[in-house]
């Protein structure tokens, strides 16, 4: 399902989703295709669900026009390069 369709079906709320397709440009990932796990109406529950997310699952608010994720590289371990 495309993000635009998710935004139309679940206006102005948090959704838990699984990333099915994305593209990487530099240090950003642009999510193109998702599968909805469930909608979340309570913002505190959204935070709790986000903390439990692993791998390609995340919680995002449908007020955002696009899903853009910042890719961070792992820093060295305690001064090790």
| Helical proportion, percent range | 10-25%
What integer value in Å does the Rg equal? 14 Å
Low-confidence stretches: none
Q: Structural class from helices and strands?
A: alpha+beta
Number of folding domains? 1
What is the average of the pLDDT values?
91
Largest sheet: 4 strands, antiparallel
Task: Write the H/E string, N to C.
Answer: HEEHEE
Query: Looking across the biggest beta sheet, what order are the strands in?
Result: 3-1-2-4
Number of strands: 4
Overall shape: globular
How many helical elements?
Answer: 2
Q: Kindly, what is the distance between the CA atoms of the first and last residues, rounded to a whole number of angstroms?
A: 41 Å
Strand % is: 35-45%
What are its keywords?
81 residues; alpha+beta; four-stranded antiparallel β-sheet; 42% strand
Tell me what you see in this structure.
There is one protein chain. With 81 residues, the protein is of the alpha+beta class. It has one domain. Helices cover 21% and strands 42% of the residues. It is built from 2 helices and 4 strands; from the N terminus they run H-E-E-H-E-E. It has a 4-stranded antiparallel sheet. Strand 1 and strand 2 form a beta hairpin. The radius of gyration is 14 Å and the shape is globular. The protein starts with a helix and ends in an 11-residue tail after the last strand. The model has no long low-confidence stretch (mean pLDDT 91).
